[in-house]
Every structure is written in C-alpha cells, then in structure tokens.
Amino acid sequence: MVAGPAEPSSASSPSSELAEADAFLVEHPVADGYSGLPWVLRQLPRYDLELGEGSVDTDVPRMRKGHIGALFWSLHLPDGLAGERAVGATLEQLDLVRTVVDAHPEGLRLTYSAGETTDARNCGRVAVLLGPAGAPAIGDSLGILRALHTLGLKALTLAGASWAGESGLSRFGEEVVREMNRIGVLADLSGASGETVRRTLAVSRAPVVCTRSAAAALRSHPANLPDDLLAALGEARGLCMVPLTAEQTGPSVRDVADHLDHVRAIAGPECVGLSGTYDSGAAHPRDLTDASCYPRLVAELMHRGWSETDLALLTWGNVQRVLRTADFTARAARDRREASTARIAELDG
Predict the structure, then answer these.
(1) What is the pTM of this model?
(2) pLDDT at 9
(3) Which of 133, 285, 298, 338 could staple 75 via S-S, CB 3.0–4.6 A?
(4) Which residues share a beta bridge with 157?
(5) What is the CATH number of the domain that holds 153?
(6) Do the Cβ atoms of 155 and 188 come closer than 8 Å?
(7) What's the total number of domains in the chain?
(8) Name one Pfam family in it (predicted).
(9) Pairing state of beta strands 168-169 and 164-165?
C-alpha cells in the first residue's frame, strides 16, 4: 500500500507551502508531457498567447505562473482520419506549431534536444517539443516517419496502428520501433495494449514514454497502467507521465498526488513525470484547471514529504534524462544501422 499524505504541520500554512512550491519551481520548472493546444488554436480565428488568451487553458502568462519550462505540443488528430488525410493533417498541425512559435518569440522557442530545451529555459522561453503525433501520421511508411522527424517530431503514439494492436507489435511494428530508435523519436505507449507495451519494451533500445497514463490500481481507465506494466516500465527506465485529468486521476489535487505516489512507489522516482493534458477537451481536477496551477500540486507533494531530489526528477529531470538518452541511442544506432526501407506488405503481408 502507498502511504497517504502526512499530517499537516502546525508550523506551516497553505500560503507558506504555496510560496515554497513557487520557489522550488523557479529552480526546477515543469516539463509537461502533453498539450492539445495546436488543435484548439486551429479552430480560432485569432489569438495572442503572449498577452493571454481566454479561450485556451495554456497561454504564455499562465505557463510562466505555472513555471512550465518545456511543453510537448500534441499533433494528435480527431478520430477517423487515416491514410493521406492523416498524413496531410499532421503536416498542417506541425506547420501551425511552427507558425505559433515564430509569432511568440519572447515566450516560446521550438527545440529538438535536451540541450536546446535547457538553453530555452535558461533564456526565459518555454521550450516547445513537437509531439506526440498519432500513428496514422506516418501512413505505414518509414520514409514519412523520417520526414516528420526531420521537421522536428520527437514522439509518436503507437496506439491505434494496424501494426501495434491487441496482440502486440507485428514484424513491421518492431521495425518502426527500431527506426524510431535510430532517428531519436520517442515511442509513446499511452493507450496501447498490454502486449504492445511489453513487446515495445523488449525491442526498444531507447526509453519509452507514456504521455498520458496514471495508475490503473487507483482508477480504471484504458490508458492507465496496471502495476505489472508500471514495474516493467520502471525496469526499462521509461517514463510514466501522469495526466491532470479528472477522468484518469480523479477530481482533486489529492487524487492526482495519490497517483504520483503510486507510480513512484511501483516504477521508481526516475520513472514518473507530469502531463497537464490541457486544451485536450478533458475535465481537470479542482484547483488544477489550467497551466498556471502546478505550484498547487507541488505544494501537495511537499506536504506529503516528497524530497527535493524526487520532486526535481518529477518536474524536469526525468524528461531531460529520456531526451538525452534517446539522442545518445540514436547517434549510436546510426553508426550500426542504415535507414530502413521495409514495407508493411513485405513484413506483415
């Protein structure tokens, strides 16, 4: 059993705990694993993220208040898009992100590596990382995967692909994962079947991530992970990024903290991260309604006795480690392996 929150100290108050959380996040900002902002912005006739945008959960002022240093911008698409339509819509999403970042140079910077992400944070910018994209974005083509990576893609969600189903990865699916390792694209396993998770952990030489997964032992949801998969993810030094959504974690800050406690206990402190999942259409817990609210969550974790070391891994360090390791793995893999020309019909036909 995971221990519950510590009893409140008579020497502390909510305001002092929040001030302590703010001070901590100045030094150790949040690397947020998922934002649905691109699709929301696509629907707006005009917006200004630098001044503040009331029609979204995530603008520059709120990211600064929430101490967000890096943010993965999802390229996911509405259900039903496949084939050339999915590829084209993903490219349009990617182009939109570049346009938005270019229009907000004082607040945002597009980054492609752990080092660039840290540099952006040190310059007072929010580092924008491209992805995850959905598996339909590559159209069963490794060439399209490489082209998207050249344009900046950092993560691809395997769930929903014909080659990553309930029975696990097909032969082509395994080749997709190897090619992702070779070029430095992270495999996102949120929503994937248990067999796909297990096989990807066996095949991948780079860390995998679950950009929107909490603990199934605490709350049943298709994207939440049972303890055996959390333990396997920890052994593989992957990363489970717990979403701040009422559906997956519960209606309160305490519920989210319970999931973070549980994932840390099962997978380890080096394998747990944060995923705001703002602007995704999901409902959020009370007091975690937009991107400015991270200090409230960190204050709750401090109240529970999380060490500064574990908190620093949670907010920033674990994402940096995964990005660095993926880049190192890719450099080594390119020395051993040529670009794959495999086709799905050849391997799975």
Answers:
(1) 0.94
(2) 43
(3) 133
(4) 134, 188
(5) 3.20.20.140
(6) yes
(7) 1
(8) Peptidase_M19
(9) antiparallel
